[in-house]
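Hi V.,

Quick status before I head out on leave. The structure for the redesign project is tokenized and pasted below; the design run finished overnight.
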């Protein structure tokens, strides 16, 4: 039973995009590892940008700096 966890920032990922991520990740497991799509689980976690860091900074701060 494959379990795939996708984490993205909560910056407006649409329902359609989530559906495409789930379908694409499932297809990878089927095509590459021969897994059964019926038992492949995909979870998408949307992380607030205050809780995401890159290059030693909160992502929200980096986004705000670019807007300024």
């Amino acid at each position: 039973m494959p379990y795939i966890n996708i984490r993205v920032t909560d910056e407006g990922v649409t329902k359609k995009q989530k559906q495409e991520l789930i379908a694409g990740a499932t297809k990878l497991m089927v095509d590459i590892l021969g897994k059964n799509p019926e038992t492949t689980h995909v979870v998408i976690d949307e992380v607030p940008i205050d809780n995401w860091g890159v290059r030693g900074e909160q992502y929200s701060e980096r986004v705000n700096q670019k807007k300024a």
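Above is the designed sequence. The longest helix spans residues 15-33.

G. will cover questions while I'm gone.

Best,
W.
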